[in-house]
């Protein structure tokens, strides 16, 4: 079944849940960036968390997550839209650590540091930025702390990636559960108990649970609000590359023509490689004049 996100609400309207499968999306991220297993899990969990959070924001915003830890992985940068497009990268994709207690050591690869969540208005204007210290670097716990502290919503987040022995992504997915204003202690306690008892998110995805099944498991009786597909999608294109080249200025473009003959650019977010040939560079140069 294709990757998708589902949203649901408890019958009393006081607890909302989102769940998503991201197996193909995370596998595409792995393939594009050539990540090793620990880096794959770190990037995949962050992509999954960004899609869940983007599912709670307004249509005219984009969500971006930056994880800056002092571990070997370096920075993780991801963004996602409410429509279900996500993209992202890790600074050092070749990071792989020995497993800890039988699990990929994402916390060790990330290290200690900060989590920054930004909501960027699509129409322009200042982004809404919020920064909290990392709890464990395992991403799920860090996101739950961000939601509790910055958005003052009692939340639980589970994100997981299962990496096959050959390094490919076997399963990935996650869920987000939030108590809304007016939630009773009784409902919150009941959902908290289901969250506590639920298998790890990577296990749920591995067993082939659909997002709607996961929400039924976590929320109990719940009203499904909607489902939508999610996919790895970048916003880069030839036009952006052209604008970046124009921004280099005349002298530098002349320099590139003289030295390499052509310009090459690789998109950080998706590793797509763009080549601009000498003839096109000359045209751009003429356009400047
Ligand atoms: Zn790109």
List the defining traits of the structure above.
289 residues, alpha+beta, CBS domain Like, 2 domains, five-stranded antiparallel beta sheet, 30% strand, binds zinc ion
How would you describe this protein?
The protein is elongated, with a radius of gyration of 21 Å. With 289 residues, it is an alpha+beta fold. Strands 7-6-3-4-5-11 form a 6-stranded mixed β-sheet, with helices on one face. The protein has a 5-stranded antiparallel β-sheet with strand order 8-9-2-1-10, sandwiched between helices. A two-stranded antiparallel sheet has the order 12-13. It contains 10 helices and 13 strands. α1 packs across α2 and α9 (250-259) packs antiparallel against α10 (278-288). 36% of the residues lie in helices and 30% in strands. It has helices at residues 23-33, 37-54, 106-110, 140-150, 185-197, 201-206, 211-219, 238-248, 250-259, 278-288, and strands spanning 4-9, 15-21, 61-69, 75-80, 85-90, 113-121, 128-133, 155-163, 169-179, 223-229, 231-232, 263-266, 273-276. The structure holds zinc ion. Zinc ion (ZN) binds next to loops.
Mean pLDDT: 94
Q: Point out poorly predicted stretches.
A: none
Number of domains: 2
Largest sheet data: 6 strands, mixed
Strand content: 25-35%
Count of individual beta strands: 13
Overall CATH architecture of the largest domain: 3-Layer(bab) Sandwich
Distance between the termini: 53 Å
Q: What is the overall shape?
A: elongated
Q: Catalogue the ligands.
A: zinc ion
- CATH superfamily descriptor of the largest domain: Hsp33 domain
Name the helicity range: 25-40%
Secondary-structure element string: EEHHEEEHEEHEEHHHEEHHEEH
């Amino acid at each position: 079944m294709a990757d998708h996100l589902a949203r649901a609400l408890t019958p009393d309207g006081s607890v909302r849940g989102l769940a998503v499968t991201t197996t193909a999306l995370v596998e595409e991220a792995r393939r594009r960036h050539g990540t090793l297993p620990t880096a794959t899990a770190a990037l995949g969990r962050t992509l999954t968390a960004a899609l869940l959070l983007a599912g709670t924001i307004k249509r005219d915003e984009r969500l971006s997550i930056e994880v800056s830890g002092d571990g070997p992985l370096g920075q993780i940068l991801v963004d996602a839209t409410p429509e279900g497009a996500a993209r992202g990268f890790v600074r050092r994709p070749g990071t792989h650590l020995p497993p800890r207690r039988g699990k990929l050591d994402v916390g060790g690869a990330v290290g200690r540091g900060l989590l920054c969540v930004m909501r960027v208005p699509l129409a322009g204007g200042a982004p809404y930025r919020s920064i909290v210290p990392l709890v464990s670097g395992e991403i799920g716990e860090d996101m739950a702390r961000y939601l509790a502290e910055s958005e003052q919503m009692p939340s639980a987040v589970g994100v997981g990636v299962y990496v096959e022995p050959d390094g490919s992504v076997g399963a990935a997915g996650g869920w987000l559960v939030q108590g809304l204003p007016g939630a009773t202690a009784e409902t919150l306690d009941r959902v908290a108990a289901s969250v506590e008892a639920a298998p790890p998110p990577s296990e749920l995805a591995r067993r082939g649970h659909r997002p709607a099944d996961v929400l039924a498991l976590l929320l109990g009786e719940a009203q499904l609000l909607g489902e939508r597909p999610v996919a790895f999608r970048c916003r880069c294109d030839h036009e952006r590359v052209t604008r970046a080249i124009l921004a280099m200025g005349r002298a530098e473009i002349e320099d590139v023509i003289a030295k390499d003959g052509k310009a090459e650019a690789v998109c950080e977010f998706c590793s797509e490689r763009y080549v601009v040939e000498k003839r096109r560079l000359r045209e751009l140069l003429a356009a400047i004049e």
